[in-house]
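We emphasize that the prediction below concerns an isolated chain of 280 residues; any contacts that depend on oligomerization or on bound cofactors are therefore not represented. The input was used exactly as deposited, without trimming of termini.
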Amino acid sequence: MLSKVKIVGAASLLALSVGAQANVVDLFTDPVAGQKVDTDGLATGTSVYNEIGSYASIIGGYRSLEIVEVSDGNTLPLQNGASMVAGGGELAFNSGTAIEAVGTLQWDGNDASSDLTKTGMGSENLVVQAGCPAGGCDRFIFDVLEADHAFDFTIGLYTDDDYWTEFDLTATTGAHTSEIFFSFFENAAGCGLAGSPPLPSGVVAQRCGTSGVADVESIGAIQLIFNLDPLTTALDFRIGAVTKTGVPEPSMVALLGLGLASSGLVSIRRRRKEKALLAD
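Result of the prediction step, given as a token string:
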């Protein structure tokens, strides 16, 4: 039985600027027929890569998927595999029972390569663009619809080969909403650190470019890598509606990492209702 990882772009997976879809990174609605990479029937260690484009619903027009089956604990080899599928408004990552797999999702322009091209999109401004509030956008919003296991993943923003920021994070189980603030990517305090302050809560490690951190007003590539060491088998989770937005309230506490901001969003909604009642 395959376990499933689904990233559902009900509104978008990371909201950024791209043509008609000004505040979208990826809606996972294109191509209509879907995009798939899978290792079914292939030997352990095989990497399968695919790039599609050009679509207005994807930042930079192009999306790259790669899946690697790292290990297979089944008695009969090649009985199960791993796959990643984008289409119908979602991205689904599937790994079979006793299968360890790593999936990579890239937005780095039309490079026709699984190697990350850190300047592939040119220079995307994540802060000032159509669809952002007057003060500019300041965060990514991740909606985790369900997750049956915790697993580690990486999110990286890249300005060029010398200026970039990567965070290793741990996703928690269960449905929740989380936030990753742009300010974290431009904070060099945690560069090179692992598992200790001043890293934000939920961050396992931070890495930065040789010359410095990413400039969120000039981004050439974005990358997500799912299921890092220690690898998780039979993983089943769905992430939906990862968007970019501005500050809803000045008092919002900056939380980083999947599973750490859901309570904050609930309290925001509660305070708004209380304010509305007082106003009446």
